[in-house]
Design brief:
Layout: H1 3-7, H2 15-41, H3 49-69, H4 75-98, H5 104-121, H6 128-136
Helix pairs in contact: 2-3, 2-4, 4-5
Length: 137
Amino acid sequence: MPLHKFVEPVLPEYKFGIVVVFAIIIAFCEAIAQCSMKYYALDRAARSELIVLVGVAGYIMVALLLLTSYRYEDMGHMNMTWSCVSIITAYALGFLLFEEHINHYTIMSVALALSAIYVGQLSDEPSVELILDERCD
């Protein structure tokens, strides 16, 4: 059964909501994969091949979810939103799980990622010229 048959019942009805839901789920799968690889790289998993397989499985899920998301959104917009959510997730997990350093540049980067998501979703809104043209008709 195709993956989109499972996700359609839980998707919001508006396009930006669908993009955000996919971006969050994809970023979550990617975060699992990245954390698995980081644990392996730091020898916290005693070099277990299982932890590497978890990472690979996470990236396979990312690919499947991206494939499904393209039924609902263009590639560029989906990738931009996912990348920004992924940046925020990676910084947060790096700080919380691996005690990675965050400074004011990091905070500005996260703010810019949030801004990119906001500005990107404006492309789904009808343009002002289009609205004005419709009102004049």
